Amino acid sequence: MADTTPQSWDARATNSMFYGFTDLPSIRERGAVVLTHGEGPYVVDVEGKRYLDANSGLWNMVAGFDHPGLIEAAQAQYARFPGYHAFFGRMSDQTVMLSEKLIEVSPFETGKVFFTNSGSEANDTMVKMLWFMNKQRGMPTKRKIITRENAYHGVTVAAASMTGKPYNELFGLPLPEFVHVRCPHYWREALRGETEEEFTQRMADELDQTIRREGAQTIAAFVAEPVMGAGGVIPPSKGYFQAIAKVLKNHRIPFIADEVITGFGRTGNTWGCETYDFMPDAIISSKNLTAGFFPMGAVILGPELADTLQQVTDEVEEFPHGFTASGHPVGCAIALKAIDVVMNEGLADNVKALTPRFEEGLARLAEHPNIGEWRGKGFMGALEAVQDKATKTPFDAKLSVSERIANTCTDHGLICRPLGQSIVLCPPFIMTESQMDEMFDKLEKALNEVF
Ligand code: PLP
User: Fold this and answer.
1) Is there a single domain that holds both residue 127 and residue 115?
2) Which residues line ligand 1 (CB under 6 A)?
3) Fewer CB atoms inside 10 Å of the end CB: C or N, the chain?
């Protein structure tokens, strides 16, 4: 129960803050969890209670909350050179080193990087780059962006318009230039008797029809997450990206991969596009880029888009866009260390090694009569609650079933995320076998208590 005495942390937190993306009835009834510090994959609240964070913060704290190498990298750079932008021909050495590193680890032979402070800003930056390029090349109406229903790309105006969630209607979004096609969730969206291959082909045909209806000459790009994250962890149907890439290639439309969650190891490879074997024209990165230790995003342009942007920018002599802290040296120093930690200190290997255990745990809990499906890739997983397993009938949204499961988990010292009717798990890459077992045991206990 929330403690509403004036000096309680609950009252102070609710009186002083306006909450985004929070179930307000839950917080009113239960109070806020106010945290003081973290220990590996655990966080600790003001009363000393420990929670295993199966959410990795917000998909991003992949190295845990107290990684000594990341703390040291931040402290050293703060002492050396605490802040600078990447404009007017001046930037820090760290910013240059990180740009080179990102191109080196990207799937591109050559490319260019632009830094932002978040994933949303990186998506907006990508859109503005495309609009700028197309306008300069005499195609001012080539502005539409195609994304998918249920996709999540952020909260700034363009990124929210790209996001395929109904709640954006509350803001009068999407803007007219943003077009959504269907979410490739085979289990939920397939027609009766449709095979997965047929479903994939239908998704590709629908994209093709959408492009023809809108006019390929009006479309600037298609943007997709390799695995939908905030949509409830939805991996693509079999062969989806190959079929989509073929359609986009026929219409000469750039394919942008939003790898804000999937980048740097989450799906078991450095990039989600590697896991699903497709080559995008640009990558949007954030979150794991700094292992959550600094707010930073990046647009990584592949060779064709990088060359085009360079050419059109040379003609006007300036690309008038950027954020005060773009390419912040402390963020870049942390990102350089984070990439090293994930790729060379065993974290990516741990994801690969423990993925079978993770999948077994999800599959075991999916035997519960009120779990309709488990989904996952690498260290991204979800369990979808249903009222009736055979008919896949969802619970009435008003019952907030996933919210109740997540709240019960919190009571047992486990943080996981309710998303729609699903419970999402995205453990930090440092999670051990026994911590993984603890995660599934606590979630199982919560499922049995709620149902
Ligand atoms: N793109 C994807 C795939 C995301 O999951 C998110 C955030 O969760 C964003 C973009 C937006 O990133 P940010 O919250 O840093 O603006």
Assistant:
1) yes
2) 118-120, 123, 152-154, 225, 229-230, 258, 260-261, 286
3) N
